[in-house]
Amino acid sequence: xxxxxxxxxxxxxxxxxxxxxxxxxxxxxxxxxxxxxxxxxxxxxxxxxxxxxxxxxxxxxxxxxxxxxxxxxxxxxxxxxxxxxxxxxxxxxxxxxxxxxxxxxxxxxxxxxxxxxxxxxxxxxxxxxxxxxxxxxxxxxxxxxxxxxxxxxxxxxxxxxxxxxxxxxxxxxxxxxxxxxxxxxxxxxxxxxxxxxxxxxxxxxxxxxxxxxxxxxxxxxxxxxxxxxxxxxxxxxxxxxxxxxxxxxxxxxxxxxxxxxxxxxxxxxxxxxxxxxxxxxxxxxxxxxxxxxxxxxxxxxxxxxxxxxxxxxxxxxxxxxxxxxxxxxxxxxxxxxxxx
Length: 340
Description:
Layout lengths: L1 E2 L2 E5 L5 E5 L4 E4 L1 H8 L5 H9 L3 E2 L5 H14 L7 E4 L4 E2 L11 E2 L9 H13 L4 E6 L8 H14 L2 E7 L7 H7 L4 E6 L4 H9 L2 H17 L5 E4 L1 E2 L7 H10 L4 E2 L2 E2 L15 H23 L4 E2 H12 L7 E3 L11
Parallel strand pairs: 6-9, 7-8, 9-10, 10-11, 11-12, 13-15, 14-16
Antiparallel strand pairs: 1-5, 2-3, 2-17, 3-4
Helix pairs in contact: 4-5, 7-8
């Protein structure tokens, strides 16, 4: 049996209050604390912890899943909606094999918002409460319909006192109108950079000329905009991962110091990709290797780069950590890593 890590605190009546990271709690005695800390739980102890959902027998069993659900609910405090993802078109000018959406060819018809869809989108945004909004434009390639992006942005600027926009673009086709749209201080770029040139071309562009266009546009954007305007993430094939040192070199070259390592998501076209058995375990090992290499690199160079998801996990753990008067007993099991 595996027991989730327990925080504990002595109470005024001599008992000990225990609590796990999903909010489950109980009172017990110093004797139980001694057995817990020394990894000497009795059969009665284990039965009590199992029945109270403070432990589990194997990963992904009902008690593990129940804890994961309760833990995730505690991390997501209800707030007014102020973050919206919009997909104005499914058309794209690339044909990435790992694409997780039902993209359509660039010249296809019937895959953009109609006037009615645009009108309903504006009506939806108009009903949102609050003073701020963040809109993320995804696709397809959203810059194929800059006119729709412009309409949404103009409306949000008029309705909300604070607004921010992110364009998820492959940076393959940027005309003057697209550059003008991206120039705005409240508009940011999110793109994909899968590592060095060879890896990026193998997974995304599939041709030297198209690859040249991407890196030329990325270079222009990096020189045109301040650091922090552009973010990027690599999609990693567990069966054929990139050279991590080359990946980090390429990101740093373009002034991008935050890397969000993302595995292939087997949806859409990506369902055709075969990655073999034990993909999750192999991904976890790969991710751990990347973190170790990143830490060593930062120490060696004196420059800062982060893996975004890992840094967020550290922040969550820090925020839910002990107060100055709390004590921890730790075990080898830990709360589940939840993906967004």
